[in-house]
Write a structure and sequence with these properties.
By secondary structure, the protein is an all-alpha fold. The protein contains one helix and no strands. The protein is rod-shaped and about 70 Å long.
Amino acid sequence: MVPLLLVLLLALILFGAGFALKALWWLAVIVLVLWLLGFVLRAADSGGRKSRWYRW
């Protein structure tokens, strides 16, 4: 009974880790797309040259 519970616990942990990693991959892709859109669609300042869209 204990080995069965350990196997089920291991399967649950691996499933949870896999889901979390997949969610993090999707989050990274969304952030990358937003960064690229901000880089491409940045507004021009009054001098006509493109300004930075980030603060640092």
